[in-house]
Design goal:
Helix content is 36%, strand content 18%. The protein has 16 helices and 17 strands. It has a seven-stranded parallel sheet with strand order 3-4-2-5-6-1-7, with helices on both faces. It has a six-stranded parallel sheet with strand order 8-13-12-9-11-10, with helices on both faces. Strands 15-16-14-17 form a four-stranded antiparallel sheet, sandwiched between helices. Helix 12 links the parallel strand 10 and strand 11. Helix 3 packs across helix 4. The protein is globular, with a radius of gyration of 25 Å. The mean pLDDT is 91. Bound molecules: adenosine monophosphate.
């Protein structure tokens, strides 16, 4: 018996037998690493993406713990979207086939409220839902969590991206403190660490090894002696690599604006950030870039400091950094979280000394063909909508997700980041669906109120 055999676990024999009939022959890495601790009652943070088998890891954990005879909600799984909640509920149902009469209920926004109340009144063992709708049930006292023994936060990073932090905190407050808490997340930014500190008790972290664990940054150097050459090199490289998110570093504020203006002139979806922008302009620029509705951000080193984005496909040094450490810092922004990334440095013959300081055996690469300039420029995958209502108008992420999905709306998995500020909210939606999204919010209102909505791009 190997340690990746399910039979090495203290699982109920019926659950084990069913795994065999599902064709689950051995545990996936995240299951082998997390299940012993989960079955032991420990809090566990699992770093694993969809496809890693994480649902079965927490699904088996919560089924193992369940008392079928008690029709009280004993486990709750929070998911960012209805699509994921449906998938999770389906997987748990599959795992639970061998146990009779297990009731699993999904409670998600975008679905009518009334039938959910009816189902809750009939009793359920496991609830899988989205934070906005669960919070609403708690406010209306239609859902009681005082018997919950296991709480799962699935795709926690995406829930935070969608602005569900406050909702999660409010929900967790209603769950008994002596519960077991599991958190799964594909990435592990500071915000996840913060939430784990707040809601978990001595968690164990398990990290499923991936085939492409090591990040790979490919560095390229291109010589461009005049301003015109530099600009056209940048355009060619952007046209060739077609990044969803590229960060271009300039050494001066003036250059950032000039470069961004010129890129926009040539049809690129670009913005500049530098110290002369006011707070709102800066926030909006960062939101649009993080939402992937603007694909190129041109920045100084100082202005880029607050930027915390893992998924940069391309970093361009429009000028060689003054200091080797700054260079390393700049290029380290690509290729994070196991992704591959490209870091490009443009240099002129007057910058050779700075280049030597990098101590990198630089060999100048040959610039790709300028025929790339004739190709159509890739449109951003997402579009940002700005809603004239925010925290002061009591708008919550769940209201926006609810307002966009459901009949005549768009699927929840086509919604990207949601950011709510005092008086405005920003939501990213897939560009192809932006008209449907706009119409849905305008026609159906949000929380019964009409808010002005417009495309920010
Ligand atoms: P998930 O990462 O939870 O979305 O799971 C990905 C897929 O793998 C699902 O379709 C599961 O049914 C399947 N799966 C989960 N665990 C196993 C296993 N140990 N062996 C084979 N398939 C599995």
């Amino acid at each position: 018996m190997s340690t990746s055999d399910f039979s090495s676990l203290k699982l109920h024999p019926d659950l084990l037998k069913n795994l065999g009939s599902l064709g689950y022959e051995s545990m996936t890495p995240i299951q082998a690493l997390s299940l012993p601790a989960i079955l032991d009652g420990k809090d566990v943070i699992g770093q694993g993406k969809t496809g890693s088998g994480k649902t079965a890891a927490f699904g088996l954990g919560l089924l193992h713990k369940l008392n079928v005879k008690s029709y009280k909600v004993q486990s709750m799984v929070l998911c960012p979207t209805r699509e994921l909640a449906d998938q999770v509920a389906a997987e748990i149902r599959k795992l639970a086939r061998a146990i009779h009469n297990i009731k699993i209920l999904t409670l998600c926004g975008g679905a009518p409220f009334g039938p959910q109340i009816g189902s809750l009144e009939h009793g359920a063992h496991i609830v899988v839902g989205t934070p906005g709708r669960i919070e609403e049930h708690l406010r209306k006292r239609t859902l009681k969590l005082e018997h919950v023994e296991m709480l799962v936060l699935d795709e926690a990073d995406r829930m935070l991206d969608m602005g569900f932090q406050d909702a999660i905190d409010n929900i967790v407050e209603k769950v008994p403190a002596n519960r077991q808490t599991l958190l799964f997340s594909a990435t592990y930014p500071q915000e996840i660490e913060d939430i784990a500190m707040r809601v978990m008790h001595n968690p164990i972290t398990v990290n499923a090894p991936e085939a492409h664990e090591a990040s790979t940054i490919k560095q390229c150097f291109y010589q461009a002696n005049t301003d015109d050459e530099r600009m056209s090199a940048l355009r060619i490289l952007l046209a060739k690599h077609k990044p969803d998110s590229a960060l271009v570093f300039c050494n001066t504020k003036l250059d950032t604006q000039d470069v961004a203006d010129e890129l926009v002139h040539y049809g690129f979806y670009a913005l500049a950030i530098h110290g002369d922008l006011d707070q709102r302009e800066r926030d909006q620029a960062l939101i649009r870039f993080a939402n992937k509705s603007v694909s190129v951000l041109v920045a100084t080193d100082v202005a880029a400091r607050g930027l915390d984005i893992d998924a940069l496909d391309l970093v361009v040094n429009f000028n060689v950094a003054h200091d080797p450490e700054v260079h390393v810092h700049r290029i380290g922004r690509t290729g994070r979280a196991g992704r591959s990334g490209i870091a490009v440095t443009l240099f002129s013959d007057r910058e050779t000394r700075k280049l030597e300081a990098l101590e990198l055996d630089v060999v100048a690469d040959v610039l790709p063909s300028d025929t790339y300039l004739d190709k159509p420029i890739k449109r951003p995958t997402m579009t940002t909508l700005k809603i004239d209502g925010g925290k002061k108008q009591k708008l919550r992420p769940g209201d926006i997700v609810g307002g966009l999905t459901g009949q005549g709306g768009i699927p929840g998995d086509k919604i990207g980041k949601i950011t709510i500020s005092s008086n405005w909210s920003y939501v990213a939606v897939e560009s192809g669906l932006v008209k449907t999204a706009l119409k849905k919010i305008q026609n159906d209102k949000l929380k019964g109120k009409t808010f002005r909505v417009r495309i920010l791009s």
